[in-house]
Amino acid sequence: MPDEALVLGLSNAARRGIDVTIILPRRLDSIMARYASESVYDALLEAGVKIHLFQNGMLHTKAILIDDTISFIGTVNMDMRSFYLNLEVTLAVYDKSFALRLHETIDHYLSRSTQLDSESWANRSRVKKFKENVLRLATPIL
Length: 142
Prior knowledge:
46% of the residues lie in helices and 19% in strands.
């Protein structure tokens, strides 16, 4: 459940031509968190962010790979609770061989994921859109 600043940062990067790909689990263990998270998909997809939904169960990896050189791995989720309240950790690694191994892991996840199509996402039901918008309001407490 990213806040507006994170959505804006990801969107701006994609609009500048940076390949921004997010891999998320297809199913979340919290239905409320799922709808709240999905409420930002429209903005991300419109900006050119690629969203892939992992099909093989829960995906708990938190990793960022930049230019096959810089890697971040840790416990931080993309939500305000992780950023500001929880005692989360992230390791920054500047090593090409480590980044290569992380890239292989990401490729493995992508091979078991489906890319969210912006056209089909736009055609989801009004009830689903309503749930997303209502639960987006609850994001700070989820």
